[in-house]
Predict the 3D structure of the following.
Amino acid sequence: MKVQSYLFFEGRCDEAIAFYKKALGAEVVQLMRYSEAPADALSDNTDASCAGAVPAPDKVMHSVLRVGETELMLSDGQCSGQAEFKGIMLSITAPTDADARKWFDALADGGQVMQPLMPTFFTSSFGMLTDRFGVGWLLVVHAGQ
């Protein structure tokens, strides 16, 4: 069994993909727009604002990003404009303090730091933040490092 995260950015998925490519070196493995769905699979919607029952054709229906050894699935969802990521965080275990700092600072750009990246009793670097999209991140250096 494999459990994966699926994040719905409600209209900002292209922006999120670009951000994670830059911040984490993510690689786009798959990207499908609503316009690529079979004609009978979605109702007609030509509203480019993403406000209709079916999102605009240029919005992301499904994508897969590879971040290190992990694949994250992303979508614009219903394009409500109100992405909410409550009660969850994505965790990155960095191999070094320098990697943790680099990724923490990149993800924090435009976001909000909840716990600054710093040494703790259980590891040399630990920190928590929410990025500019509201996704929670926890960064930690493997305790054996």
Notes: Helices lie at 13-24, 97-108. Residues 7 and 74 are 5 Å apart (CA to CA). The two ends are 29 Å apart (CA to CA).
